[in-house]
């Protein structure tokens, strides 16, 4: 921890410019991810979460239609089994869609909504995956969250003493060449979960260096939001608590301060949000802790070694397959350990907890809702943090070659996964041929990365811009509009890059 006190001075940090760079990075990646947006959902998890947002806006409650992953609550109505935090955060987008529906011409509304997509019928309820303006705009939450993740990652890198150039490179690699890019196309909660944990680590680090109790309170808020967004996010709790305790201890030891004020900054926000979580839990399920999701999380039906081997080494679900840059860990992680041993220990603790908890779960792969190891998505982001320190050591030709090869492999994988239709990929993969269990995750031919590439090359592409260009049954295509949108995204991205370049020059 002592070494970490040198990080701000060593970095020559200019907080205002760093925040501007983070904003520019987030804006640039949002535009990049927009080019790959599907404009619709791919699985019932996304639909259930969207229906919760819809119910909150339209009815002021959480009850939704009977669809997969919903269960009868204490009042007999059905509720989505997962946390409601992201459903609440998506409300402004749903409200914007309602406003747009009232103000835009019908032709515009139909074009934005895209083709109607009803992929499943469960009982008497048809699950609508696309073809509604509200779905299109709420779905933009995913690229927004992923873009913010890149910006927060940059800021935390800088607080670790990484140079602006190295922090920019590592953040760009995170956003384009790792599993973070794929998750930008799915309205799932894993990106939000990772974002709040990363933001809490950043806030606690800033408090350690500045002593500002407002930042400490903000860190407590975002850390507590993790559980409201996704209940299994409590796995990150021990690591966050350890890091918070170490940051407070170091600050008090070096600068002193009032314990009562610090206690209030940490405990009051977390207590309020915890009370909200338990109240919402009881309102839906009639219990304070037990729920369908808790039962699912506690279903330990997979041998631990199977899940661990799968997350680490299988061709279908390995974190290294989806983020090849993590193969540099033997060289990058020791640098984080040397720079800030406390944060290194915290990252190791959280990574271990995520892997051990999900490796033994019955549904450990998380497949069918999205490709890749989505349950342990935070692991890949946390383990990318030391990359900036490694880049700062100097890019020799060997290092540059390793970075280029692994980064290019990751980029190709992400482009294939973002472009291909996930529904068509699952169909073409025919996972059922490998048996009723998850044994297919160890079959190289079943890799969603390879299958997505084949799916895309076969013409099963899921891009909103392409739908707008070609049209769909009952709706003619708008080639000129699609080209205009693509050109607009490109011009906006160029403007952001120029802005980013000027900011980098000012901080040099």
Explained architecture:
The chain has 2 domains: 300 residues, no CATH class; 95 residues, no CATH class. Helix content is 66%, strand content 4%. It has 26 helices and 6 strands. The protein has a two-stranded antiparallel ribbon. It has a two-stranded antiparallel sheet with strand order 3-4. A two-stranded antiparallel sheet has the order 5-6. Helix 11 packs parallel to helix 13. The two termini are 27 Å apart. The N terminus is likely disordered.
Low-confidence stretches: 1-13
Q: How many distinct helices?
A: 26
The percentage helix is 55-70%
Oligomer status: single chain
How are strands sequenced across the largest beta sheet?
A: 1-2
Hey, roughly how much beta strand do the residues contain?
A: under 5%
What profile does the largest beta sheet have? 2 strands, antiparallel
* Domain module tally: 2
Quick structural summary:
This protein is mostly helical and 508 residues long. It contains 26 helices and 6 strands.
Topology:
Layout: H1 7-11, H2 15-34, H3 44-58, E1 70-72, E2 78-80, H4 85-89, H5 91-103, H6 106-113, E3 117-122, E4 125-130, H7 133-138, H8 141-159, H9 164-177, H10 179-183, H11 190-210, H12 213-229, H13 237-255, H14 259-285, H15 292-297, H16 304-313, H17 319-322, H18 329-339, H19 341-359, H20 377-384, H21 387-392, H22 397-419, H23 422-429, H24 448-457, H25 464-470, E5 471-472, E6 475-476, H26 479-507
Antiparallel strand pairs: 1-2, 3-4, 5-6
Features of the shown structure:
two-stranded antiparallel ribbon, globular, disordered N terminus, mainly alpha, 508 residues
């Amino acid at each position: 921890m002592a070494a970490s006190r040198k990080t701000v001075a060593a970095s020559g940090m200019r907080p205002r410019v760093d925040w501007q760079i983070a904003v520019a990075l987030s804006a640039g990646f949002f535009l990049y991810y927009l080019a790959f947006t599907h404009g619709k959902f791919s699985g019932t998890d996304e639909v259930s979460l969207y229906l919760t947002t819809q119910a909150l806006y339209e009815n002021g409650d959480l009850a939704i239609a009977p669809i997969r992953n919903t269960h009868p609550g204490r009042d007999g109505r059905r509720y989505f089994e997962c946390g409601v935090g992201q459903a609440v955060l998506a409300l402004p987008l749903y409200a914007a869609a309602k406003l747009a529906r009232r103000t835009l011409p019908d032709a515009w509304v139909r074009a934005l909504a895209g083709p109607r997509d009803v992929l499943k019928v469960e009982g008497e309820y048809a699950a609508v995956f696309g073809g509604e303006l509200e779905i299109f705009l709420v779905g933009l939450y995913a690229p927004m969250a992923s873009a913010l993740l890149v910006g927060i990652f940059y800021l935390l890198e800088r607080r670790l003493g990484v140079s602006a150039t190295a922090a920019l490179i590592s953040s760009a690699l995170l956003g384009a060449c790792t599993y973070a890019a794929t998750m930008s196309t799915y309205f799932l909660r894993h990106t939000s979960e990772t974002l709040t944990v990363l933001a809490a680590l950043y806030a606690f680090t800033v408090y350690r260096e500045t002593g500002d109790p407002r930042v400490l309170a903000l860190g407590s808020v975002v850390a507590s939001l993790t559980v409201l967004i996704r209940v299994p996010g409590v796995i990150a709790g021990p690591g966050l608590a350890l890091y918070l305790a170490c940051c407070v201890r170091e600050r008090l030891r070096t600068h002193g301060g009032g314990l009562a004020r610090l206690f209030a900054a940490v405990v009051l926000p977390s207590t309020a949000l915890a009370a909200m979580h338990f109240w919402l839990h009881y309102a839906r399920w009639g219990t304070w802790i037990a729920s369908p999701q808790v039962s699912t999380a506690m279903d330990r039906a997979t041998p631990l070694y199977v899940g661990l081997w799968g997350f680490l080494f299988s061709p279908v679900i390995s974190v290294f397959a989806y983020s090849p840059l993590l193969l540099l860990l033997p060289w990058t992680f020791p640098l984080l350990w040397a720079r800030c041993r406390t944060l290194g220990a915290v990252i190791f603790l959280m990574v271990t907890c995520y892997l051990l908890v999900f490796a033994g779960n019955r549904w450990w792969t998380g497949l069918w809702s999205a490709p890749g190891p989505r349950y342990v998505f935070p692991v890949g982001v946390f383990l990318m943090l030391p990359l900036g320190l490694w880049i700062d050591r100097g890019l020799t030709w060997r290092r540059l070659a390793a970075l280029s090869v692994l980064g290019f492999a990751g980029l190709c994988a992400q482009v294939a996964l973002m472009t291909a239709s996930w529904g068509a990929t699952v169909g073409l993969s025919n996972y059922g041929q490998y048996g009723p269990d998850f044994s297919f995750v160890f079959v190289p031919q079943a890799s969603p990365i390879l299958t997505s590439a084949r799916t895309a090359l076969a013409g099963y592409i899921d891009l909103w811009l392409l739908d707008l260009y070609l049209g769909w049954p009952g709706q003619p295509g708008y080639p000129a509009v699609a080209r205009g949108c693509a050109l607009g995204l490109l011009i906006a991205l160029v403007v952001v890059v120029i802005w980013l370049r000027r900011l980098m020059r000012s901080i040099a």
